[in-house]
Amino acid sequence: MNSLLLLPGDGIGPEVTAESRRILDALALPGLAISEAPFGGASIDAHGVPLTAEAEAAALASTAVLMGAVGGPKWAGVSYDIRPEAGLLRLRTAMNVFANLRPARCFAALASASTLKPEVIEGLDLLFVRELVGGVYFGTPRGIETLPNGERRGFNTQSYTSSEIRRVGVTAFELAKLRAGRVCSVEKANVMESGVLWREEVTRLHAERYAEVELSHMYADNCAMQLVKAPRQFDVILTDNLFGDLLSDLAAMSTGSLGMLPSAALGEAGKPGLYEPIHGSAPDIAGQGLANPCASILSLAMALRYSLGAPEAADRVEAAVEAALNAGARTRDLGGTLSTRGMGDAILAKLGA
Ligand code: NAI
Ligand code: MG
Q1: 188 part of the active site
Q2: Ligand 1 pocket mutation pick from 258, 298, 341 by most atoms within 8 angstroms of CB
Q3: Complete domains list, the chain, with CATH
Q4: Are 126 and 276 in contact (CB under 8 A)?
Q5: pLDDT along the chain (353 residues), means of 10
Q6: Predicted-complex ipTM score
Q7: Which of 125, 137, 219, 345 is catalytic?
Q8: Is 271 among the catalytic positions?
């Protein structure tokens, strides 16, 4: 039986997660067990730690985890190892999620709000698969040293092993099979040895196991240009930690508000995925019913598609969000006046339609 653990967290986390919960209840998926646990500051208040052993075990035993957000000024003063953010890091480490999924999708109703021309961005639907636990952010040696001539030198190491490349490659190819069936692998094999190995390993994995998926390669600088010039050419973009950090932010922001952007982190096949909005706990608007719940609801749709084996339900949820936007439903961040609950109502109404 599939199970989904909700970790609402802090600030607007519980507000937006409550709307995802209402969508889930309306879907009434057979054989899906739903549970909830305190997380982050809420867990510190109740149990003294941001992630209890019970909540961690529940996450590891579930099929998918849907998080809200953690943190806020209330817990800014607590010691580092029991901060809300420490709970998030511990959860990600325990779940061994090495692939970060960042979709960039442009809903027609919001295309005119993009910084790109509507005819360039409208209908965009691409998915970044970014390697998350390796590369230059983690490679050794790293440091700042003083040279014999007195100059200082800062250095980091970009490093990838075959197995690190292959496991995130598997994630990208498997997801492409659930989408339009195309993977573009992005590196700088022209100037970096780690990029040469990346291209070789992805090419070999493709030939061995994923011939039915269309594979192309692109240099990261060209990819940046293409994302602005003709972003709709992409389906899945597979890339490393550093390039993925920059390129996924670039693509996501061209589609609109922070309140619309979902994400996921996946580990080995068959292990639970961690789904969450890109945004944080937004203490400035928390408790006022102003938060846009779409990022959480679209994160739920990703969980349905990529972990819970319910792609039809995922399609229904995404179509309902799109239909609500087409009908003019807007929270304040999108220039409208609907409350969090009001936006949830508008999406629920379309889900039933
Ligand atoms: P934030 O994403 O919480 O807020 C940035 C701005 O966007 C704010 O003006 C906020 O009102 C607005 N915003 C965010 N989500 C929105 C939504 N759904 N609807 C409408 N407006 C929205 O980032 P910030 O302010 O840097 O961080 C606040 C707290 O959240 C901090 O404690 C931070 O550590 C935490 N945080 C947690 C994350 C997580 O749990 N994964 C990720 C990012 C930040
Ligand atoms: Mg970033």
Answers
A1: yes
A2: 258
A3: 1-98+267-353 (3.40.718.10), 103-264 (3.40.718.10)
A4: no
A5: 96 98 97 96 95 97 97 88 89 94 93 88 94 92 96 96 98 95 98 98 98 98 97 97 94 86 93 96 97 98 96 96 97 96 98 82
A6: 0.97
A7: 137
A8: no
- For residue 123, which of 233, 218, 278, 263 has the smallest C-alpha distance? 233
Please report the beta strands in 119-226, taking only residues with DSSP state E, as ranges in sequence order.
125-131, 143-146, 152-155, 182-187, 214-219
Residues in the chain: 353
**pTM value surpassing 0.90:** yes
Q: Which of 275, 270, 272 is nearest to 66 (CA)?
A: 275
Element of type H or E holding 13: helix 13-27
Nearest to 24 by CA among 13, 12, 36: 36
Binding site for Mg(2+): residue ranges? 221, 245, 249
- The ligand placed nearest to the CA atom of residue 256 is 1
| Ligand whose nearest atom lies closest to the CA of 102 | 2
Q: In the structure encoding, which two tokens stand for residue 112, read together?
A: 């005119």
344 contact partners, CB below 8 Å, separation of at least 6: 18, 19, 22, 23, 293, 297
Tokens 């809200």 — which residue?
68
